[in-house]
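It is worth pausing here to work through a concrete case rather than discussing structure prediction in the abstract. The textbook approach is simple: state the sequence, then state the predicted structure, then interpret. We follow exactly that order.
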Amino acid sequence: MKKIEQKLWILLLAVAIIGLQSCQKADDFDSVNENILELKKATVNNFYSSTLPVGNGVVRAYVTENRDGDPVEVGINLSAKVLDNLPDEPKQYVLELPKNKGNHFYTHVLFDWNPMGHEPPGIYDLPHFDIHFYIIPNEERLAIPGLSPPDKDDAPGDDYIPEFYMQLEGLVPQMGAHWIDVRSPELGGETFTKTFIWGSFDTEFIFWEPMITRDYLMTMPDEIIPIPQPIAYQESGWYPTDYKISYSPTKKQYTVALVNLMYHDAE
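Step two, the predicted structure:
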C-alpha cells in the first residue's frame, strides 16, 4: 500500500510540474524552479503577479509573506532584457499583486518608464523608472484628480511625515502628491541615480516610490538603502524600513523592493 501511495505522490508531482511548464511563458523568469523552491521554504514564500512585456524583457511584482501571512517584502523583478529596446514615449504598467496575500496591505504596483525623465528640469530629466507601491485599490488610484502648481493637496499630519521630507507642488492625476527628502544628493547638484519618494492623497500616505535611472541599473547594483521613518503611522500595517536595488547574474534579473517591513499600529 505504501508503494502505491509513493507512486501516486510521484505521479501527482510530475503532473504538477508539467502543468507549471505548460503555463510558463517565455518570459525570462524560471517560474517552475522558483515554485518548487518555494515549496521547500520553511519561513517565507513569494507570490507573484502576472508578467508584462517591457522592452525586450518582462516585469512582474511579488509579495513575500511569512508563516503568519504577514508581508515581509514587496517588490518587482525585471528581466535583464527590460533595459533593451524601451519605448521612446512614457509608458505605465499596472501590476496587480496576488489577492489575499500579504494580509491585503499592498495592493498593486504602478511601474512607469520615463525616457526623457520629468520635472523639475536639470534634476529628474534623465531616463528613469518610477516604481510606486500602493496600499489603495487601483480603482481608487485612478480616481485621484490633478492639481497644478503652486497648489498643493491637503497634507498628512506632521507626525506622519518623515523628517526632512517636503511636499512638491501640484497633484499628479491618477497618482498622488509627491514628497521628497530635501537632503537627496541630486538636490545638492549631484547627478540623479536613485531617490526615494513618499506619496499621499487627501491627507493620507498611499504609496512609496523608489525612482531609479536606467544608467544606474546598468551598473548592476546591490544595495539596501535605509528609509527615513515618521513618528507615527496613520493606518495599521507593514511599512518598509529599507529598500533594495539588486541584480542577480545567475537569474539575470533586477529586483527593486521595499524590504524589512515592520508592523505599526495606527496612532
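Step three, interpretation. The helical segments are 2-23, 31-40, 138-142, 214-217. Residues 48-264 form one domain.
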